[in-house]
Protein backbone atom coordinates (compact mmCIF):
# COMPACT_ATOMS: atom_id res chain seq x y z
CA UNK A 1 0.00 0.00 0.00
CA UNK A 2 2.69 2.49 1.00
CA UNK A 3 4.72 1.63 -2.13
CA UNK A 4 1.73 2.48 -4.32
CA UNK A 5 1.27 5.82 -2.56
CA UNK A 6 4.99 6.58 -2.91
CA UNK A 7 4.76 5.89 -6.65
CA UNK A 8 1.77 8.20 -7.00
CA UNK A 9 3.35 11.01 -4.98
CA UNK A 10 6.63 10.62 -6.85
CA UNK A 11 4.92 10.83 -10.22
CA UNK A 12 3.06 13.99 -9.23
CA UNK A 13 6.30 15.55 -7.98
CA UNK A 14 8.12 14.84 -11.25
CA UNK A 15 5.37 16.15 -13.53
CA UNK A 16 4.00 19.68 -13.55
CA UNK A 17 0.81 18.43 -15.16
CA UNK A 18 0.45 14.92 -13.77
CA UNK A 19 -3.03 14.53 -15.17
CA UNK A 20 -1.74 14.83 -18.74
CA UNK A 21 -0.13 11.81 -20.36
CA UNK A 22 -0.69 9.58 -17.38
CA UNK A 23 -0.13 6.02 -18.52
CA UNK A 24 0.51 4.10 -15.32
CA UNK A 25 -2.38 2.19 -13.85
CA UNK A 26 -2.44 2.73 -10.15
CA UNK A 27 -5.27 2.47 -7.71
CA UNK A 28 -4.87 3.51 -4.10
CA UNK A 29 -7.02 4.27 -1.14
CA UNK A 30 -5.79 7.00 1.17
CA UNK A 31 -6.94 7.03 4.78
CA UNK A 32 -6.71 10.14 6.95
CA UNK A 33 -6.08 9.26 10.55
CA UNK A 34 -6.61 11.89 13.23
CA UNK A 35 -4.53 11.29 16.30
CA UNK A 36 -5.14 13.07 19.58
CA UNK A 37 -1.40 12.74 20.22
CA UNK A 38 -0.74 15.44 17.60
CA UNK A 39 -3.56 17.79 18.57
CA UNK A 40 -3.40 20.86 20.75
CA UNK A 41 -4.90 19.86 24.10
CA UNK A 42 -5.87 23.50 24.67
CA UNK A 43 -7.94 23.66 21.48
CA UNK A 44 -10.30 25.28 20.83
CA UNK A 45 -8.88 28.67 21.80
CA UNK A 46 -10.52 32.06 21.37
CA UNK A 47 -8.66 33.97 18.65
CA UNK A 48 -7.39 37.47 19.36
CA UNK A 49 -9.55 38.81 16.51
CA UNK A 50 -12.73 37.25 17.89
CA UNK A 51 -15.25 39.88 18.97
CA UNK A 52 -15.68 40.43 22.69
CA UNK A 53 -18.68 41.53 24.73
CA UNK A 54 -20.57 43.04 26.33
CA UNK A 55 -23.23 44.04 23.84
CA UNK A 56 -23.31 47.84 23.95
CA UNK A 57 -26.24 48.22 21.53
CA UNK A 58 -28.51 45.90 23.52
CA UNK A 59 -26.92 44.92 26.85
CA UNK A 60 -29.82 42.60 27.68
CA UNK A 61 -28.75 40.22 24.90
CA UNK A 62 -25.51 38.36 25.53
CA UNK A 63 -22.82 38.77 22.89
CA UNK A 64 -20.93 36.91 21.72
CA UNK A 65 -23.49 34.13 21.74
CA UNK A 66 -21.35 31.35 20.25
CA UNK A 67 -17.82 30.71 18.94
CA UNK A 68 -16.77 28.40 16.11
CA UNK A 69 -13.80 27.32 13.97
CA UNK A 70 -12.08 30.29 12.34
CA UNK A 71 -8.30 29.79 12.60
CA UNK A 72 -6.12 28.17 9.90
CA UNK A 73 -9.06 27.14 7.74
CA UNK A 74 -8.34 25.60 4.33
CA UNK A 75 -10.19 27.81 1.86
CA UNK A 76 -10.53 27.81 -1.94
CA UNK A 77 -11.14 30.42 -4.65
CA UNK A 78 -12.05 29.96 -8.33
CA UNK A 79 -9.03 32.03 -9.41
CA UNK A 80 -5.52 32.69 -8.16
CA UNK A 81 -5.36 35.19 -5.31
CA UNK A 82 -1.61 35.65 -4.87
CA UNK A 83 -1.17 38.02 -7.85
CA UNK A 84 1.36 35.66 -9.44
CA UNK A 85 0.72 35.51 -13.18
CA UNK A 86 2.03 31.94 -13.51
CA UNK A 87 0.44 30.58 -10.36
CA UNK A 88 -2.53 28.28 -10.45
CA UNK A 89 -2.87 28.17 -6.69
CA UNK A 90 -6.50 28.42 -5.65
CA UNK A 91 -6.16 27.29 -2.04
CA UNK A 92 -4.94 29.00 1.08
CA UNK A 93 -4.96 28.67 4.85
CA UNK A 94 -6.69 31.72 6.29
CA UNK A 95 -8.14 32.92 9.59
CA UNK A 96 -10.86 35.36 10.52
CA UNK A 97 -14.43 35.77 11.63
CA UNK A 98 -15.42 35.33 7.99
CA UNK A 99 -14.14 31.77 8.36
CA UNK A 100 -16.34 31.10 11.39
CA UNK A 101 -19.44 32.42 9.63
CA UNK A 102 -19.75 29.64 7.01
CA UNK A 103 -19.12 27.01 9.67
CA UNK A 104 -22.00 28.27 11.80
CA UNK A 105 -24.21 28.90 8.75
CA UNK A 106 -23.59 25.37 7.54
CA UNK A 107 -24.42 23.94 10.94
CA UNK A 108 -27.65 25.97 11.02
CA UNK A 109 -28.53 24.63 7.55
CA UNK A 110 -27.90 21.05 8.67
CA UNK A 111 -30.10 21.55 11.73
CA UNK A 112 -32.86 23.03 9.55
CA UNK A 113 -32.60 20.02 7.26
CA UNK A 114 -32.84 17.66 10.22
CA UNK A 115 -35.63 19.68 11.90
CA UNK A 116 -37.63 21.48 9.16
CA UNK A 117 -40.16 22.80 11.69
CA UNK A 118 -37.57 24.63 13.80
CA UNK A 119 -37.50 28.41 13.64
CA UNK A 120 -34.22 30.38 13.37
CA UNK A 121 -34.52 31.13 17.09
CA UNK A 122 -34.96 27.44 17.89
CA UNK A 123 -31.85 26.60 15.87
CA UNK A 124 -29.85 29.28 17.67
CA UNK A 125 -31.10 27.95 21.00
CA UNK A 126 -30.05 24.41 20.13
CA UNK A 127 -26.57 25.62 19.14
CA UNK A 128 -26.10 27.75 22.24
CA UNK A 129 -27.46 25.44 24.94
CA UNK A 130 -25.40 22.46 23.72
CA UNK A 131 -22.07 24.27 23.19
CA UNK A 132 -18.78 23.08 24.67
CA UNK A 133 -17.18 25.20 27.40
CA UNK A 134 -14.20 22.85 27.90
CA UNK A 135 -11.23 22.26 25.62
CA UNK A 136 -9.71 18.91 24.59
CA UNK A 137 -7.84 18.74 27.88
CA UNK A 138 -11.12 18.96 29.76
CA UNK A 139 -10.28 22.42 31.08
CA UNK A 140 -12.13 25.74 30.60
CA UNK A 141 -11.54 27.31 27.18
CA UNK A 142 -8.74 29.90 27.05
CA UNK A 143 -7.77 32.55 24.50
CA UNK A 144 -4.60 32.67 22.40
CA UNK A 145 -2.80 34.41 25.26
CA UNK A 146 -3.85 31.53 27.54
CA UNK A 147 -6.14 33.79 29.57
CA UNK A 148 -9.35 32.19 30.77
CA UNK A 149 -12.13 32.70 28.23
CA UNK A 150 -14.91 34.42 30.16
CA UNK A 151 -18.53 34.78 29.11
CA UNK A 152 -17.70 37.88 27.06
CA UNK A 153 -15.14 35.88 25.07
CA UNK A 154 -16.89 32.56 24.47
CA UNK A 155 -20.56 33.37 25.02
CA UNK A 156 -22.32 30.03 25.40
CA UNK A 157 -19.17 28.20 24.25
CA UNK A 158 -17.78 26.44 21.18
CA UNK A 159 -20.35 25.00 18.80
CA UNK A 160 -21.00 21.24 18.95
CA UNK A 161 -23.11 20.24 15.91
CA UNK A 162 -23.84 16.70 17.09
CA UNK A 163 -25.23 17.83 20.43
CA UNK A 164 -27.10 20.71 18.78
CA UNK A 165 -29.03 18.21 16.68
CA UNK A 166 -30.50 16.73 19.88
CA UNK A 167 -30.67 19.58 22.43
CA UNK A 168 -33.50 18.21 24.56
CA UNK A 169 -35.12 21.62 25.16
CA UNK A 170 -35.26 24.77 23.05
CA UNK A 171 -35.99 28.42 23.82
CA UNK A 172 -38.11 29.53 20.88
CA UNK A 173 -38.98 33.08 19.82
CA UNK A 174 -41.49 34.04 17.17
CA UNK A 175 -41.12 37.16 14.98
CA UNK A 176 -43.93 39.01 16.77
CA UNK A 177 -42.12 38.53 20.09
CA UNK A 178 -39.44 40.96 18.95
CA UNK A 179 -41.84 43.90 18.59
CA UNK A 180 -42.24 44.67 22.34
CA UNK A 181 -38.48 44.10 22.62
CA UNK A 182 -37.84 46.73 19.92
CA UNK A 183 -40.34 49.07 21.56
CA UNK A 184 -38.42 48.63 24.81
CA UNK A 185 -35.21 49.71 23.06
CA UNK A 186 -36.91 53.08 22.41
CA UNK A 187 -36.99 52.74 18.67
CA UNK A 188 -39.65 54.93 17.12
CA UNK A 189 -42.64 53.27 15.54
CA UNK A 190 -41.38 54.47 12.16
CA UNK A 191 -38.02 52.81 12.72
CA UNK A 192 -39.68 49.59 13.86
CA UNK A 193 -41.85 49.66 10.74
CA UNK A 194 -38.68 49.62 8.63
CA UNK A 195 -37.60 46.44 10.40
CA UNK A 196 -40.94 44.63 10.59
CA UNK A 197 -42.56 46.00 7.42
CA UNK A 198 -45.80 46.44 9.33
CA UNK A 199 -47.46 49.15 11.37
CA UNK A 200 -46.63 49.03 15.05
CA UNK A 201 -48.25 50.80 17.99
CA UNK A 202 -45.97 50.39 21.00
CA UNK A 203 -48.64 51.63 23.39
CA UNK A 204 -50.80 48.68 22.32
CA UNK A 205 -48.21 45.89 22.11
CA UNK A 206 -46.41 47.06 25.23
CA UNK A 207 -42.71 46.89 26.00
CA UNK A 208 -40.49 44.31 27.66
CA UNK A 209 -37.02 44.63 29.21
CA UNK A 210 -34.30 43.35 26.91
CA UNK A 211 -33.51 40.41 29.18
CA UNK A 212 -37.15 39.32 29.08
CA UNK A 213 -36.87 38.17 25.45
CA UNK A 214 -37.10 34.36 25.40
CA UNK A 215 -33.39 34.06 24.66
CA UNK A 216 -31.20 31.07 25.67
CA UNK A 217 -29.03 33.23 27.94
CA UNK A 218 -29.33 35.92 30.61
CA UNK A 219 -27.56 39.26 30.46
CA UNK A 220 -28.51 41.81 33.08
CA UNK A 221 -27.21 45.03 34.57
CA UNK A 222 -27.72 45.71 38.24
CA UNK A 223 -26.76 48.54 40.55
CA UNK A 224 -24.57 47.95 43.58
CA UNK A 225 -27.11 49.68 45.81
CA UNK A 226 -30.06 47.99 44.18
CA UNK A 227 -32.09 45.95 46.65
CA UNK A 228 -35.06 45.38 44.37
CA UNK A 229 -35.14 42.05 42.58
CA UNK A 230 -35.18 41.62 38.83
CA UNK A 231 -37.63 39.00 37.57
CA UNK A 232 -37.56 37.29 34.19
CA UNK A 233 -39.38 34.36 32.64
CA UNK A 234 -38.32 31.79 30.09
CA UNK A 235 -40.33 29.20 28.20
CA UNK A 236 -38.76 25.97 27.02
CA UNK A 237 -40.19 23.44 24.57
CA UNK A 238 -39.50 19.73 24.85
CA UNK A 239 -37.93 18.36 21.65
CA UNK A 240 -36.48 15.29 23.37
CA UNK A 241 -38.20 12.17 24.70
CA UNK A 242 -41.89 12.60 25.48
CA UNK A 243 -41.46 11.64 29.13
CA UNK A 244 -38.58 13.72 30.45
CA UNK A 245 -37.65 15.23 33.79
CA UNK A 246 -35.11 18.06 34.08
CA UNK A 247 -33.52 19.12 37.35
CA UNK A 248 -32.03 22.55 37.96
CA UNK A 249 -28.29 23.08 38.18
CA UNK A 250 -27.20 26.63 39.02
CA UNK A 251 -23.87 28.41 39.09
CA UNK A 252 -24.77 31.74 40.70
CA UNK A 253 -22.66 34.73 39.57
CA UNK A 254 -20.36 36.57 41.98
CA UNK A 255 -22.15 38.69 44.59
CA UNK A 256 -25.58 37.66 43.33
CA UNK A 257 -28.54 35.81 44.71
CA UNK A 258 -30.81 33.75 42.47
CA UNK A 259 -33.95 31.69 42.70
CA UNK A 260 -35.68 29.65 39.99
CA UNK A 261 -39.26 28.41 40.14
CA UNK A 262 -40.06 25.64 39.49
CA UNK A 263 -36.81 23.79 40.20
CA UNK A 264 -37.91 20.68 38.30
CA UNK A 265 -39.43 20.52 34.81
CA UNK A 266 -41.51 17.44 34.06
CA UNK A 267 -42.64 16.80 30.50
CA UNK A 268 -45.13 14.18 29.32
CA UNK A 269 -45.33 15.11 25.62
CA UNK A 270 -43.08 16.12 22.75
CA UNK A 271 -43.36 19.86 22.01
CA UNK A 272 -44.89 20.50 25.44
CA UNK A 273 -43.96 23.93 26.81
CA UNK A 274 -43.16 24.92 30.38
CA UNK A 275 -42.47 28.43 31.68
CA UNK A 276 -40.14 29.05 34.60
CA UNK A 277 -39.35 32.21 36.58
CA UNK A 278 -35.94 33.54 37.53
CA UNK A 279 -35.16 36.11 40.22
CA UNK A 280 -31.86 38.02 40.43
CA UNK A 281 -30.84 40.19 43.37
CA UNK A 282 -27.48 41.80 44.12
CA UNK A 283 -25.81 41.16 47.44
CA UNK A 284 -24.41 43.98 49.58
CA UNK A 285 -21.19 45.33 48.11
CA UNK A 286 -21.72 43.97 44.63
CA UNK A 287 -19.64 45.98 42.19
CA UNK A 288 -17.61 47.64 44.96
CA UNK A 289 -14.88 45.01 45.27
CA UNK A 290 -13.20 45.71 41.93
CA UNK A 291 -15.13 42.99 40.09
CA UNK A 292 -16.88 44.56 37.11
CA UNK A 293 -19.09 41.64 36.18
CA UNK A 294 -20.18 38.20 37.28
CA UNK A 295 -20.87 35.06 35.29
CA UNK A 296 -22.56 31.75 35.83
CA UNK A 297 -25.08 29.45 34.24
CA UNK A 298 -28.58 28.04 34.53
CA UNK A 299 -28.66 24.41 33.44
CA UNK A 300 -31.50 21.93 33.06
CA UNK A 301 -30.25 18.35 33.43
CA UNK A 302 -32.04 15.14 32.46
CA UNK A 303 -30.82 11.58 32.02
CA UNK A 304 -29.86 12.35 28.41
CA UNK A 305 -29.42 16.12 28.08
CA UNK A 306 -27.70 19.15 29.60
CA UNK A 307 -29.40 22.37 28.50
CA UNK A 308 -27.17 25.27 29.55
CA UNK A 309 -27.89 28.99 29.48
CA UNK A 310 -24.96 31.31 30.28
CA UNK A 311 -25.50 34.18 32.71
CA UNK A 312 -23.71 37.53 32.61
CA UNK A 313 -24.22 40.28 35.21
CA UNK A 314 -22.72 43.76 34.86
CA UNK A 315 -22.38 45.62 38.16
CA UNK A 316 -23.17 49.30 37.86
CA UNK A 317 -21.36 51.05 40.70
CA UNK A 318 -23.01 54.41 39.99
From TrEMBL:
Residues covered by the Peptidase S8/S53 domain: 44-133
Keywords, in A-Z order: Signal
GO CC annotation terms, alphabetical: extracellular region
Stretches of the chain forming a coiled coil according to its record: none
Domain Subtilisin-like protease fibronectin type-III: 212-313
Record keyword Membrane present: no
A GO MF label: serine-type endopeptidase activity
Principal location listed in the UniProt entry: secreted
Subcellular compartments: Secreted
Transmembrane segments: none
Family annotation (InterPro entries): Peptidase_S8/S53_dom, Peptidase_S8/S53_dom_sf, SBT, Subtilisin-like_FN3
Tagged with keyword Signal: yes
Biological processes, Gene Ontology terms: proteolysis
UniProt xrefs under PANTHER family: PROPROTEIN CONVERTASE SUBTILISIN/KEXIN (PTHR10795)
Family: Belongs to the peptidase S8 family.
Protein name in UniProt: Subtilisin-like serine endopeptidase family protein
Organism: Prunus dulcis (Almond)
Amino acid sequence: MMQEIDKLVGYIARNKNPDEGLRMKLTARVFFHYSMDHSDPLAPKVATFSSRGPNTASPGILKPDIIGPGVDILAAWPVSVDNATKSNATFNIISGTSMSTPHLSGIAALLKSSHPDWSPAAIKSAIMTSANVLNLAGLPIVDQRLNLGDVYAIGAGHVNPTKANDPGLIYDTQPMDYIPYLCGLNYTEKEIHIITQQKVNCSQVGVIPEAQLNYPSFSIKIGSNESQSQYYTRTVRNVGPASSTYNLDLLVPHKMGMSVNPGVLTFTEVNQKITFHVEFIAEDGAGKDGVAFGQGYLRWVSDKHNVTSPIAVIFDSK
